[in-house]
Amino acid sequence: MSTHNFVLIGEAGSGKTEIAANLALRLAEDMPVPVCLIDMDQTKCMFRARDFSSLLEKGHVHMAVNPELWDSPLMPQGVTSLLKDDSICCVFDAGGNAVGAAMLGQFAGLMAEKNTSYYYVINPCRAFSGSMEDILESLSAILISARIPAEGLKFIANPFMGEYTTPELIMEYVRHLEAELGKAGLKLHGLAVSERFFGEVRKLTGLPILELNTFVDKLYV
């Protein structure tokens, strides 16, 4: 059974939106069905997936949005219908932290009825995301808020420090994150890397890599 839903969760500043947008574009290239990006982020006013919907639509990614109400904390249009539609693929960009992920929780039942993949994005360069204790504290709160099962959750590293990012820094933080996750019996499933560093990083790791066409270069601290 092919995956119907791809759900991106994580701390604010982890890079979920960049990854969700790039994943949707990649799926639109590879999948025989329409791909819809659902922007569930109602907790921040800067850099939301819906802010660059025209770029995504050029890549044949459909957006579930309320254009006239973008700055209101309202549900995107037609989420229930999209979840029930077996002829499409959905990518969910959840809001950051437990508060942002809460909106996703009301659809937990519908998601459980479909083949849904959940991805927890970690920017290990970000404050309060570098130790297993901090990661587990945030992870537990988000999973409870979004009503997401811990089983099968996949961890994606997105080491990013704006202009200070280098291939060496990326790999340093990847190794650190792998060690921290290992303390809890968890593992890293993939890595997201800006197209600027993709070629070099690919030579340094055997992890699956999503090459990011970055919509914004911003230092999250």
Notes on the structure:
The protein has eight helices and eight strands, in the order βαβαβαβααβαβαβαβ. Strands 3-2-4-1-5-6-7-8 form an eight-stranded parallel beta sheet, sandwiched between helices. The C terminus is likely disordered.
CATH topology: Rossmann fold
* Mean pLDDT across every amino acid position: 86
CATH superfamily descriptor? P-loop containing nucleotide triphosphate hydrolases
Low-confidence stretches: 217-221
What is the name of the CATH class? Alpha Beta
Known CATH architecture: 3-Layer(aba) Sandwich
Concise overview:
With 221 residues, the protein is an alpha/beta fold.
Could you outline the blueprint of secondary structure elements for this entry?
Layout: E1 5-10, H1 16-30, E2 35-40, H2 53-58, E3 61-64, H3 79-84, E4 89-94, H4 97-105, H5 108-112, E5 116-122, H6 132-146, E6 154-157, H7 167-182, E7 188-194, H8 198-202, E8 209-212
Parallel strand pairs: 1-4, 1-5, 2-3, 2-4, 5-6, 6-7, 7-8
Protein traits:
221 residues; Rossmann fold; eight-stranded parallel β-sheet; 8 helices; alpha/beta; CobQ/CobB/MinD/ParA nucleotide binding domain-containing protein; 8 strands; P-loop_NTPase; single chain; disordered C terminus
